Amino acid sequence: MSQQMCVHLQDLSKSGKTWQWDIPAERLMSDEGSVNPLEGVCHTALWQGSIEYAHGIYTLSGMWRVTMVRRCVRCLCKFEWLAEQECQRKYSLTEPQDMDDEEKLDIEVIPLSDSLNLMDVLREDIWLAWEACVVCKETCKGLCQGCGMDLNQGDCQCHSLASDHPFAALAAMKFDK
Ligand SMILES: [Zn+2]
Ligand SMILES: [Zn+2]
User: How do the domains of the chain map onto residue ranges?
Assistant: First the structure.
């Protein structure tokens, strides 16, 4: 299986190009290409797709799946964040004609002398899908505000005290300062 990541669009045959690659984590974190390396990739990633040509436009449709070590914003533990997304791009070798400005925005012009680096496309797409706040699981209970205990591990002292405490109801109320 060859991983010819750089594609000269003008050389694409009529049948286009399809690929299905397993990309080693180290490669996504290396500094090849022109997009910033990814961080914390922990398994082989999947990158598959195709490029088809019609009426002057090269349409890339693909999907990727990557796992990265991230930190949960609630409980602060590290976990494996699985991201999976579809990727749609359009390219042209020349400034597209007969299109309104909005349509043109979707099309990236690649000069004839350049090639399209599919590794860059993949990493750019993963960065775009990056979510700043991720949780280890939707039901993550996070840390206790009082003692800092991870509430996924069980109830802490503050919680068991709070419910019997005569002022427990007050704790649930909000006061204007
Ligand atoms: Zn968590
Ligand atoms: Zn606590």
Answer: 6-129, 141-177
C-alpha 156 to ligand 2 mean position (Å): 5
CA distance linking residue 103 with residue 61, whole number of Å: 17
Per-residue pLDDT of the chain (177 residues; tens, 9 = 90+): 456 789 999 888 788 999 999 999 999 999 988 999 999 999 999 999 999 999 889 999 999 999 999 999 999 999 999 999 999 999 999 887 877 888 888 899 998 888 999 999 999 999 999 898 999 999 999 999 999 999 999 999 886 655 555 555 555 555 565
Q: Are 6 and 32 in contact (CB under 8 A)?
A: no
**Which is it for strands 78-92 and 57-71: parallel, antiparallel or unpaired?**
antiparallel
- CA 12 – CA 118 distance, rounded (Å): 14
- Report CA(81)–ligand 1 centroid distance (Å): 11
In the reported structure, the alpha carbon of residue 168 is separated from the centroid of ligand 2 by a whole-number distance in angstroms of: 14
Among residues 13, 27, 14, the alpha carbon closest in space to that of 118 is found at 27
pTM of the shown model: 0.80
